[in-house]
Amino acid sequence: MLTPITFHDGVIELIDQTRLPQGVVTLTVRDYRELAAAIREMRVRGAPAIGIAAAYGVVLGIQALTDGAVLDEHFKKVIEELTATRPTARNLFWALERMTQVFRENRDTGLEFLRETLLDEAKRIHEEDIEANKRIGSYGAKLIPDGATILTHCNAGALATGGYGTALGIVRAAWEAGKLKKVLVDETRPRLQGARLTAWELKQDGIPFELITDSMAGSFMACGEVDAVVVGADRIARNGDTANKIGTYPLAVLAHHHKVPFYVAAPTSTVDPTIRNGSQIPIEERDPSEVTQMRDVRIAPEGVNVRNPSFDVTPAGLITAIVTEQGVFRSPLSEAIENVLHG
After folding, report:
1. How far apart are the two ends of the chain, measured CA to CA in Å?
2. Which CATH superfamily is domain 135-341 in?
3. Which residues have CB under 8 Å from 76's CB, separation 6+?
4. What pLDDT is stored for residue 265 in this prediction?
5. What is the pLDDT of residue 65?
6. Is residue 72 flagged as an active site residue?
7. Is the pLDDT assigned to residue 1 strictly greater than 80?
8. Spelled out in words, what is the top-level CATH class assigned to the domain 5-133?
9. Distance in angstroms (rounded) separating the CA atoms of residues 44 and 49
10. Could you state, in order of their start, the residue ranges of all structural domains in the chain?
11. What does pTM read for this prediction?
12. Is it the case that residue 81 has pLDDT exceeding 80?
């Protein structure tokens, strides 16, 4: 099974997702600051994968420490560095909160035991994510009609998670169940995660797909060629409003207009209990060069003004269901989410 992150012999190995699909290049990361840079530069990306990588990054940070007298100060520095990498993905903060809790409970047990305990927790976060993805796939596949064409946006596959995927977990499970005809893959401007990453994953698995530009999605829905839209999520508010890759919201509007089911696939760790609704979700704005260039090729005039929000928010009312490892959440989404939070 494809996984973008592994930890062994005291180092993290990452598939460098900026190099796909031209080649599979593995980064070997030995320092938490290198890991923070890899997250900022989107060499590892996808909300669950970022959380897993950050958890292992904490391990690297404590692994390098030799002076227990500065343990608290050093741990705080590690957490701050990793927290500051990207603002929108909830799983980053969720994973660091778990690692911080383990640190507090074991800080007085000695450096060696503390390192082992933190590594055990990071591995647990990784393993739990893979298992959650498989359950999401199983629940989600039941929602897909026989002979379906699924439209997906960005990359919510194995590359974006610990393995298997959320949205692509549903695609994989539907394919394995013999229910899937094909996938329509949005290219996902400006970084082309659909064209570069989702298409690459589906090709590796032999799942039939067609690559389309983002602006083509409505036309295919109007022609009756889309049976369901399935996307991932980076943060879900308590009322069900969902932040995902920019371009997701207009897909939800189109799906609603054409009466196409719109499903969000995400583990419950993506739910942020501190956020009441989508207006409170922090939206990352990235470098203008992502819009004005494709890789190193300029496609816009010099000096143009650019806006480049990396995510948008889809209101809960446009979401047919959120598929989680704990089951399928339907309207009213806020009620289902509150039941989980108080579970």
Report:
1. 32
2. Translation initiation factor eif-2b; domain 2 (3.40.50.10470)
3. none
4. 98
5. 87
6. no
7. no
8. mainly alpha
9. 7
10. 5-133, 135-341
11. 0.97
12. yes
